[in-house]
Amino acid sequence: MFWMINKILKLAPLGVFAFICTTIITFGASALLPLLKLVLVVVFAMVFFVFAILGLVAWMCGINIMNIIRILKSELLLAFSTSSSEAVLPVMMKKMENFGSPKEITSFVIPIGYTFNLDGSALYQSIAALFVAQMYGMHLTLSEQIVLMLTLMITSKGMAAVPGTSIVVLLTTLGAMGLPAQGLALIIGVDRILDMVRTCVNVIGNALSTIVIAKWENVYDKAKGQEYLKSILKNTI
Fold first, then answer.
1. In CATH, 33-236 is 3.40.50.11930
2. Is the distance from CB of 207 to CB of 63 less than 8 angstroms?
3. Do residues 162 and 118 touch, judged by C-beta distance below 8 A?
4. Any stretches that span the bilayer, and where are they (predicted)?
5. How much is the pTM?
6. Which residues of the chain have pLDDT under 50?
7. pLDDT value for 29
């Protein structure tokens, strides 16, 4: 069984490459333009979400979102390169403790967040589902889009923090919503790039959630957090 899975994983990139080559030969290089637009839209949406939505939440709690990014810059680079937030879990928990969040908050919120607080994955899946629908000329009403978004928000919970999981969730969700799941074959070609971006968003969202919960519970150590931030900035300079 594992031998077969190993062979499939080795041959899958060749299959995706062949599919994209067939698309280019049939429809021309312009067929890849929608994929470029998808990448740009997803990246823009992720950046907007981090600095506008998460930034607003952080500001309401008296925190600068840039400080969290500065503290986790090494972890974000590792998460970006591996497309897995699991790789940075222990170090991120330690850094959030140093930033002022108590251990009992950090050790509970971050592991739970790795299952139920996947902001980047949920955002990507919504955009990818709409992309597939538009690619096949299917017009979704506002109510259908809302139902699709809510469905993806629910199905994204419980995903493993490993590369490529979003595609599996999308595959099952699109079929249940009556959308052509075969459209994902084209997205797979750029999924690795988008996976790296959404993994970073997941890490930032989970890191921020620990500070927010600590603030709400009135157990956040502001002095410890400021001292740790000063040490980070000093080492950076």
1. no
2. no
3. no
4. 12-33, 39-63, 136-155, 167-188
5. 0.84
6. none
7. 65
